[in-house]
Amino acid sequence: MNILMIIFTVIGGMMLSAQSSVNGTLSRKAGTIETTLLTFLTGFLFLLILIFFFGQGDVLGILNAPKWQLSAAFLGTMYLILTVIAVPQIGVIATSIAGIIGQLTIGIVIDNFGWFGSLVISFDWKRSIGLVFMFIALYFIYKGNKRSNEDSSKTK
């Protein structure tokens, strides 16, 4: 079952990068906030249909959740807005790698301290090396983007 979850997550990551690319392009015509609104409205309608057919029937249970847990909606909105802003400036792959580095960094902190009721996994040298390699990847990808932009502007 774990391999299936990994496959689902990889597919989700692919969808996220495709969405970032489309949203970045759309934002040039419609605007950043407007593009973000469209994404969330579409998601709302899609989820409303899913809840109607497959939901557990307790949408109002959200109101009984601790208030700090509701911050997830704000965090997701901020992630999407920042991604929509970044993609047209630095490209999809640099935006994706930077986002993953942010996720890994806070994930390491959350795991290490067991925040939000998560499993405690201590920070060790293996995790730090993985993070260093991600920063190295970002550096080379970003530098490659700049070189490609300079080369394309010379040919125009």
Order of helices and strands: HHHHH
The rounded Rg comes to: 19 Å
Helical proportion? Answer: over 70%
Number of helices: 5
Task: Determine the structural class based on helices, strands and strand pairing.
Answer: mainly alpha
Q: Give the tally of β-strands.
A: 0
Shape: globular
Q: Which residues form runs of ≥5 with pLDDT under 50? A: none
Distance between the termini: 52 Å
Largest sheet, in brief, is: none
For the residues shown, what is the average pLDDT? 89
Q: β content, as a range?
A: under 5%
Task: Characterise the protein shown here.
With 156 residues, the protein is an all-alpha fold. It is 80% helix and 0% strand. The chain contains five helices and no strands. It has helices spanning 2-30, 32-54, 71-90, 92-113, 125-155. The longest helix is centred in the C-terminal third of the chain and has 31 residues, at 125-155.
